[in-house]
Write a structure and sequence with these properties.
Among the domains are: about 1-25 and about 110-125, no CATH class; about 40-105, no CATH class. It has about 230 residues and is an alpha+beta fold. The chain is about 35% helix and about 10% strand. The radius of gyration is 37 Å and the shape is flat. A hairpin with a 4-residue loop joins strand 3 and strand 4.
């Protein structure tokens, strides 16, 4: 725990030094992300107002799409702007057509330099070594739990959740064919099993098979004689 505290203390001080060197309103990483996203945008635009338009395009698979963008409401039909707080590529393309607007004014304050400085304005107080700590009698002794190896082979893979890919479905009983339990813990009665199971198929008699063989041999002999 003390090592973790030291790491956090050093990390906060490093971010404080970075925050003191930052200038402007928006973090440089966000501005760099905009510059990368604005390259190579080949969209079609149909403006419906000074700051609103329909942005459309075609995917690599040949499917067409269209989203409505409103800069005044800070909304886009794709939903990325509302979720992340940063303008999506469709809004960035529209900002390129509206020259009098500054894109930095349409970003959430979460990505501002001021918020970054406020987040790391505190510092962790340095502490002495453990040998210098005051001795306190708690009245009880806290000991770690006993470590015992479980029976069987150690598990190599974690237990997956029900909705996770690769998770097999619920267990199915081989006796009553219901899900959720196995044959060993099945409580179904014999009457329930007879009611749920389909009726058995009628078995063919041995005499029926012999008669059919005799009939086939009789037909073959007649064909040979003719």
């Amino acid at each position: 725990m003390d090592k973790i505290r030291e790491k956090i203390m050093e990390k906060i001080y490093t971010w404080q030094e970075i925050a003191n060197k930052l200038q402007g309103r928006i973090l440089p990483s966000v501005i760099h992300e905009w510059n990368m996203k604005s390259r190579g945008l080949h969209y079609d635009i149909k403006k419906s107002g000074p700051v609103s338009a329909e942005i459309s395009g075609t995917t690599n698979e040949g499917k067409t799409w269209r989203y409505g963008v409103d800069l005044a409401k800070r909304e886009c039909g794709c939903g990325q702007w509302e979720v992340s707080g940063k303008p999506c590529t469709h809004a960035i393309y529209l900002f390129g057509k509206v020259r009098q607007l500054n894109i930095e004014d349409f970003v959430h304050d979460y990505y501002s330099v001021e918020r970054f400085k406020v987040a790391y304005q505190f510092q962790i107080t340095p502490m002495n070594d453990k040998s210098e700590w005051p001795k306190v009698d708690l009245g009880f002794e806290m000991i770690p739990p006993p470590l015992q190896r479980a029976a069987g082979r150690p598990r190599k893979q974690r237990i997956k959740a029900s909705g996770e890919p690769g998770k097999r479905g619920p267990y199915q009983c081989k006796r009553c064919f219901q899900f959720g339990h196995i044959e060993k813990s099945c409580n179904a009665t014999q009457a329930e099993l007879e009611q749920e199971l389909p009726p058995p198929r009628p078995k063919k008699g041995k005499s029926q098979g012999k008669c059919s063989n005799i009939f086939l041999s009789y037909i073959c002999c007649n064909m040979f004689l003719h």
